[in-house]
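Q: Predict the assembly, please.
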Amino acid sequence: MTARVAFVVVGHVDHGKSTLVGRLLAETGALPDGALDKVQGICDSQQRPFEHAFLLDALEEEQRQNVTIDVTQVRFAHGGRDYLLIDAPGHRQFLKNMITGAAHADAALLVIDAAEGVQEQSRRHAALVSFLGVRTVIVVVNKMDLVAYAADAFHRVAAEYRAFLADIGMTPVAIVPASARDGDNVVGPSERMPWYAGSSVLTALGAVEPAAAESSGVLRLPVQVVLKLDERRIVAGRIESGALAVGDEIEVWPSGQRARVKSIETWPEAAPAPEGAASGESIGITLDDQLFVQRGDVIAHPAAPPRRSNVIATSLFWLGRQALEADQHYRLRLGTLERDVTVLSITRGMRSSSMEVYEGQGTVGQHDVGEVILRASQPLVFDPAAAIPATGRFVLLDGHDIVGGGTVLEDEDLYRRPYGAELPRSEHIAPRPAGITPAERAAAYGHRSQVVWLTGMPGAGKTTVARLLERRLFEAGVKTFVVDGEQLRFGLSADLRFTDRDRSEQSRRAAEVARLFQRAGLVVIVALVSPFTADRDYARRLIGPDDFMLVYLHAPLAVLSERERHGLYTAAGRDAALRIPGMNALYEPPLDAGCVFDTSVVDAEGVTGAIIAAVERRLR
Amino acid sequence: MDELTALEHNSIYILREAYSKIPRLAMLWSMGKDSTALVWLTRKAFFGKIPYPLIHIDTSYKIPEMIEYRDRIAREWELPLIVSQNTEALEEGMNHTRGRLVCCGALKTEALRQVVEAHRFAGIIVGIRRDEEGSRGKERVFSPRTPTSAWDVTEQPPEFWNQYRTDVPPGEHVRVHPLLDWTELDVWRYIERERIPMIDLYFERDGRRYRSLGCAPCTASIASAARSIADIIEELRTTRTAERAGRAQDQEDTHAMQKLRVKGYM
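A: Predicted assembly structure:
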């Protein structure tokens, strides 16, 4: 049997998608007897010319309003090949239906009206189709009859769209000038466009191969259900990647327990019994050890385990009517695994119709895309989507409804961190929705909240500047508070030493505390050595880049050692076991600080004034 | 993996999702080729066992051979079968002469609604396919129904990356459609490959056969010489007739199927 190639037909509303599909079906003889007559009858009764779109827009509402509401799939065969066309609605309101259609496609057919040119949905659809994993696109510049079949009109639209596609990393395999209504360049060449020597829509479709199955070769078997039949406990699921054989040693994540595959079960019983199974197969296996396995677990080979973390960096598209904001709670579903998650921070939101980054505070609006950090109540088991798409894609649910889809990004640092790998012990609690919104607090307090994070080696002047900054802000009526590293060490971090690992943990705790005060509406000033870039990055991501300002204070070592009031530098000179960042331990100077000051040149008043000037506009 | 195997594994995946996520689940079985293939897929998904009841909506007007076949297969395969009838409407004399859509509404839609309500089913697995007719082409794999069994065609949930709206709020139920992506031809090829026993009505007798099965008064046979599954597959390759052309209720109105289906028809 020849492989089917599935195309999703997308583009702006009224640019002629359904008409193009209807025309393709009619001209390739794919329609059953009576289908054309039925549509002719409907059109006669509405006193309108024959509408090819009605071949697909079967719903009464669709025909009455002449708009595609929901996605439909139709098949046709041509030249010994099977095609599946997925006709998607172009209206903004029905975007989730477009996404439903596009997710099943090998390639996309992007339809653009030659007279109207590139419109909002032309761009948004391309961006979302790309997000969903569709890489091959054919562009049809339709309604060439409206521009008198002129070559320059075609080239103008083609160039503009090609540039946008390039921005999102897509290159069309063909750009075809056509008139779906009249059939020009749909199946065969058009006499009205002798200047165009390229392929027709149908020949362009014929040149596309089905998308290769996405399998990395690494075994991932997400558990769907465990069935107890007579003596057997059958672990059932679909292999999403790689292959497995009887006798293989496997691990079950997140627990990490090991066992061997005892059998691959089938019904009716196969003789001989299968020895192995591969990607795409819905199988059932038994194990040689009675492990506790449940839905949501992921089976993998020990040599290539999935990642485990309760914090993930993601790129997502949003369908919810309410914008996605920090601190909101959703249910996440990744394969068969479900977890409650909190939006920790929003790195950036972008308009999917232009790929412009939003101004102002981090949200992701309906139909837009963004980069977001999520924190789960329980360990997540996943792979970065770039490595294994099936275990790197997830959806977010609000109540019962899917409101977004995303991919997990590679983030070596985030997933390796202790707070990534060491998971919360409180297994039986779930986050609750926040009550008062940040906007409400800002209105009541008269200013937005912020974290000003002062980093620098001991003696650089962090505490001095922090105290002065607090005083100045307080006097100006701003609600503010200092989180000082040294103060934390007497209480919250009393269990920590000065090892690299403990310094990281200290930074994490300071970031969590700062985040709480910041969410309470305050301007939080953190004074902390925080020697590692990764820790400062983590703090920025935890809090959100719009609410976080990094300030780097530094001075020559001689000045530091003279100034440092505990005599740490002198002590470290004598005692190698005492490790001081910047002297005998690593201090990584930030390259991304919002402000940098040499405190041997500028005094505390000067530094404070400059920080206030920089932070002021972020509080409005 | 060939196309048919891919469809099979995907349907098994959907059946297992439904079983894992939906507490009170049942499957419709009409004895036709599609729902019988679905019973077969269920046995594959759950290793020979059927973990949820099968429902036959018996209008009392079915072609008599269908009932014989039902009882024989149910016995041989040990099927957990619920036969449901809108007895009130039948006692009151409901039949197709009162209007085909009225009759379908009472004896199929309403009978189904009654059995869903009586057993408080949260999910019903149905063997519909997109290529059968236009309104089914717009369906979802997990398709929500309101407490009155209504289908809101303009507000359907998104489905992508094998994620579906599998949560069922109290009072609602969900129709699960594991064969949505299959075509008529796929189903026959699968029946041939798996050697699934089919009812004789699909094969030629006196120059005619049934292509789609339903109630005797409203289902017409077609002229055909197909005596085997291989013959049927060959016939379907070249036919220009729609599958449901012999189903009289479809022809009652331009949007007959949609009108039936928004109220809860299968």
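The two ends of chain B are 31 Å apart (CA to CA). The CA atoms of residues 18 and 186 of chain B lie 22 Å apart.
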